[in-house]
């Protein structure tokens, strides 16, 4: 069983997820930004042009960070991509086709 817990104030929590079809190469992104009271601050859901599920995860994280940054400088990120978490924690930028996205995420999170 998975339980969601609100962050402590002054934090906001960003949850993102994507869906990607390897047969059609179609992807969709979605996410929620919630406050310390658990209340919804912002949500998004849309198709995304991505060549892989990993790239879609990066794009969803960027969109979610943009929204979360409107509410707080303290952002708790939750996502289900272990590969993305590993890359973020490694300090590396990843493969060449992902480096622009990773550099943007690093820039956004270094300010927080």
Structure commentary:
The chain has 112 residues and is α+β, with helices and mostly antiparallel strands. The chain has a single domain, classed as Ribonuclease H-like superfamily/Ribonuclease H (Nucleotidyltransferase, domain 5), CATH 3.30.420.10. It is built from three helices and four strands. It has a four-stranded mixed beta sheet with strand order 3-2-1-4, covered by helices on one side. Strand 1 and strand 2 form a beta hairpin. The longest helix has 16 residues. It is globular and about 40 Å long. 23% of the residues are buried. The model has no long low-confidence stretch (mean pLDDT 91).
Which characteristics define this entry?
single chain; Nucleotidyltransferase, domain 5; four-stranded mixed beta sheet; 28% strand
Write the layout of secondary structure elements.
Layout: E1 12-20, E2 27-34, E3 40-48, H1 53-68, E4 75-79, H2 82-90, H3 99-110
Parallel strand pairs: 1-4
Antiparallel strand pairs: 1-2, 2-3
Helix pairs in contact: 1-3
Strand content: 25-35%
Identify the CATH homologous superfamily.
Answer: Ribonuclease H-like superfamily/Ribonuclease H
Assigned CATH architecture: 2-Layer Sandwich
**Distance between termini?**
31 Å
Radius of gyration (CA) equals 14 Å
Total E-strand runs: 4
Structural class: alpha+beta
Secondary structure tally, helices: 3
Major β-sheet annotation: 4 strands, mixed
- State the CATH class: Alpha Beta
- The ordered string of helix (H) and strand (E) elements is EEEHEHH
């Amino acid at each position: 069983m998975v339980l969601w817990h609100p962050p402590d104030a002054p934090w906001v929590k960003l949850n993102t997820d994507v869906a990607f079809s390897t047969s059609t190469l179609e992807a969709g992104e979605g996410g929620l930004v919630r406050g310390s009271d658990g209340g919804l601050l912002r949500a998004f859901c849309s198709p995304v042009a991505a060549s892989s599920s990993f790239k879609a995860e990066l794009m969803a994280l960027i969109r979610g960070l943009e929204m979360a940054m409107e509410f707080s400088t303290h952002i708790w990120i939750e996502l289900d991509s272990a590969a993305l978490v590993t890359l973020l924690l490694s300090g590396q930028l990843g493969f060449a086709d992902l480096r622009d996205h990773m550099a943007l995420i690093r820039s956004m999170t270094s300010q927080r």
